[in-house]
Amino acid sequence: MTASPDLATPAARPTIRGHIAIMRIDHWVKQVFVLPGILAALSDGTSDIPSGVVVRVVVGMASVCLICSSNYVINEVLDAPSDRVHPVKRHRPVPSGKVNVKLAYVQWIALMVAGAGLGMLVNRPFVITVVVLWVMGCVYNIRPVRSKDLPYLDVLSESINNPLRMLAGWYMAGTVAFAPTSLLVSYWMIGCYFMAIKRYAEYRDIDDPAVAAAYRKSFSYYSLERLLVSIIFYASAAMLFLGAFIMRYRLELILAFPLIALVMAVYLSLAFEPESAVINPEKLYRERTLMVAVVVCAAVTAVLMFVDITALDTIFKPTGLKLRTA
Questions:
Q1: Taking a C-beta distance cutoff of 8 angstroms, is the pair 192, 159 a contact?
Q2: Terminal CA-to-CA distance of the chain, rounded, Å?
Q3: Is 7 left (phi over 0), alpha (psi -120 to 50) or beta?
Q4: What string of DSSP letters covers 283-297?
Q5: Could you tell me which of 160, 220, 197, 163 has the C-alpha nearest to residue 290?
Q6: What per-residue string of b and e applies to 239-264 under the rule 16 or more CB within 10 Å gives b?
């Protein structure tokens, strides 16, 4: 997939539909990454459901969606120059002229204020989390940092949204203590894994280093080999920290490892397809094999969060064995 340098940007006039489109409401499905945080917080070994949890979850989800839409708006505005050289993204609302840029900046701030305002109805740790989520959107998109232009930092900084979403879910459940660090780091690394796969598919589909670098500055450094190596690193780190969490907090989850590995394998396989669905994650629901694997994995994991299997304590009991020395 290559872009011709003489492609003209379609002329258009700003519309309400254009301003709604840059909120990327269809991307709100990504807030599903909040749910594991809720489940983790509720699986505290008791059967008690905190009072007001339903209201906090509804209000909290709305808050996260608005904060993420604020980040999407600034992303759309600041990415417009590079989107104009992309064969598909040049038709987005901002580069095609369907958005009033000055009004879009107002929209960006208004969505943040609305999201943070709703967050205050949940609890203080939650509102701090969503504000940090918004700040990371600024770090990712706005100069002088604009981490999305920096190799590896682009993936690491965007994927930090995953543990922040998990932490938001954790606080929605009514827990005020900080979530286990090993779980958050694992969630961060799995997000990096997914994002690196997206980068790999994008770079391969563009199939022209010059066009790729014009579209995304980090692509001037990346290569398919470097992206594949990073994918392996993120996958390994994710499983290492997940294992640390499981051994300390919830041993039953070790039984979900094969299903987690299956989801990761199926997702990686999609990256090798032309015009891969991983480039547009909001459309992954169309991938039947992946969806079946995700649903089964999520169901089994949810059950294991609440069901105790005492035999595992014996099977995985530390033996105290030490390596022999010469």
A1: yes
A2: 59
A3: beta
A4: GGGG-HHHHHHHHHH
A5: 197
A6: bebbebbbeeebbbbbbbeebbebbb
Q: Is 313 left (phi over 0), alpha (psi -120 to 50) or beta?
A: alpha
Angle CA 320–325–326, to nearest 5? 160
Spatial separation of the C-alpha atoms in residues 151 and 218, rounded to whole Å: 5
CA of 37: how far to CAs of 80, 111, 205, in Å?
A: 34, 24, 34
DSSP string, 162-216: HHHHHHHHHHHTT--SPPPHHHHHHHHHHHHHHHHHHHHHHHHHH--HHHHHHH-
In whole angstroms, what is the distance from residue 286 CA to residue 312 CA? 37
Chain CA centroid to CA 225, Å: 23
Residue closest to 53 by CA, chosen among 166, 170, 174, 168: 174
How much is the pLDDT for 78? 94
What residue has token string 């609302």? 93
**Residue 228: burial class (beta carbons within 10 Å; 0-12, 13-18, 19+):** middle
Q: pLDDT tens digits for 103-146?
A: 999 999 999 999 999 999 999 999 999 999 999 999 999 999 99
Is residue 252 within 8 A of residue 309, CB to CB? The reply is yes
171 contacts 38 by C-beta, under 8 angstroms? no
Q: Is the peptide bond before 144 cis (omega within 30 degrees of 0)?
A: yes
Q: How do residues 234-287 score in pLDDT, each as one tens digit?
A: 999 999 999 999 999 999 999 999 999 999 999 999 999 988 999 988 788 889
Q: The whole model's pTM is what?
A: 0.86
pLDDT tier at 64 (50, 70, 90 boundaries)? very high
Pair of tokens at residue 175: 């827990």
Name every residue whose Cβ is closer than 8 Å to that of residue 201 and which is 6 or more positions away in sequence: 270, 271, 276, 278, 279
Query: pLDDT: is 47 or 221 the higher one?
Result: 221
